[in-house]
C-alpha cells in the first residue's frame, strides 16, 4: 500500500490509501490531449478550482504516451490558473480492465484511436470518450500553490538565464 500526503485547509496528514496507479506531478507541456474542451465547462471549472484553492482529483494519463485519458478540463483549468504541474495517475492503458466507449454514437472510440488522436494533435470533439475505470479514483486534494513553478533562475547560474 502506497502512502499519500493529503492536504486539508488547516492541516496536512499522512493517510494510507491504495492508489490505482503510480502518481506523478507532470509538467503540462509533456501531456497530450486526445479530446478538446468545452469553453463553458472550462470556465465554470476554472472558477470552482480557483475558489477552492485545490485540485481534488488527479487526471488519468497513459504512462507510455502521456496522452490524457480523463481530465482534459482539469488540465486546461490548471493551466489557466497559472499551474505548470499536473497531478496525474500514470496508468497502463493496455490493461484490459480499463474500458473505453463513446458518448457520441456517431463517433466510434477505441483505445487505439484515443492514443492516435493524442499523438497526432487532432483531438476528438469535447466529451467524446468515456472511460470506465476498474477502481475508484481517490480524492487527493492538492493546493494550487504546490502546482506552480517559480521559473526565476538564480543569477548564480550565469549563462543559463
Question: What does this molecule look like?
Answer:
The chain is of the alpha+beta class and 161 residues long. It has one domain (3-150): Alpha-Beta Complex (Conserved hypothetical protein from pyrococcus furiosus pfu- 392566-001, ParB domain). Helix content is 20%, strand content 27%. It has three helices and ten strands. Strands 3-7-5-6 form a four-stranded mixed beta sheet. Strands 1-2 form a two-stranded antiparallel ribbon. It has a two-stranded antiparallel ribbon with strand order 4-10. β5 and β6 (68-70) form a beta hairpin. The longest helix is centred in the first third of the chain and has 14 residues, at 39-52. It starts with a strand and ends in an 18-residue tail after the last strand. The relative contact order is 0.23. Mean pLDDT is 85; it is low at 1-15 and 153-161.
CATH topology, anyone?
Conserved hypothetical protein from pyrococcus furiosus pfu- 392566-001, ParB domain
- How many helical stretches? 3
As for the number of domains, it is: 1
Q: Give the C-alpha Rg.
A: 17 Å
- Main β sheet profile: 4 strands, mixed
CATH class: Alpha Beta
Query: Which regions contain 5 or more consecutive residues with pLDDT less than 50?
Result: 1-15, 153-161
* Superfamily (CATH H level) name: Conserved hypothetical protein from pyrococcus furiosus pfu- 392566-001, ParB domain
Helix content: 10-25%
Integer average pLDDT: 85
Q: What letter string, H or E per element, gives the SSE order?
A: EEEHEEEHEEHEE
Structural class, by secondary structure, is alpha+beta
Amino acid at each position: 500500500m502506497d502512502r499519500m500526503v493529503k492536504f486539508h485547509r488547516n492541516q496536512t496528514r499522512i493517510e494510507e490509501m491504495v492508489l490505482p496507479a503510480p502518481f506523478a506531478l507532470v509538467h503540462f507541456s509533456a501531456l497530450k490531449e486526445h479530446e478538446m474542451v468545452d469553453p463553458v465547462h472550462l470556465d465554470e471549472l476554472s472558477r470552482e478550482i480557483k475558489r477552492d484553492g485545490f485540485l481534488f482529483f488527479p487526471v488519468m494519463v497513459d504512462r507510455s504516451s502521456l496522452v490524457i485519458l480523463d481530465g482534459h478540463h482539469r488540465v486546461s483549468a490548471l493551466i489557466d490558473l497559472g499551474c505548470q504541474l499536473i497531478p496525474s495517475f500514470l496508468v497502463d492503458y493496455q490493461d484490459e480492465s480499463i474500458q473505453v466507449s463513446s458518448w457520441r454514437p456517431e463517433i466510434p472510440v477505441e483505445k487505439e484511436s484515443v492514443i492516435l488522436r493524442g499523438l497526432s494533435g487532432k483531438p476528438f470533439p469535447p466529451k467524446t470518450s468515456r472511460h470506465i475505470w476498474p477502481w475508484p479514483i481517490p480524492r487527493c486534494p492538492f493546493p494550487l500553490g504546490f502546482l506552480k513553478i517559480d521559473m526565476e533562475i538564480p543569477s548564480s547560474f550565469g549563462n543559463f538565464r
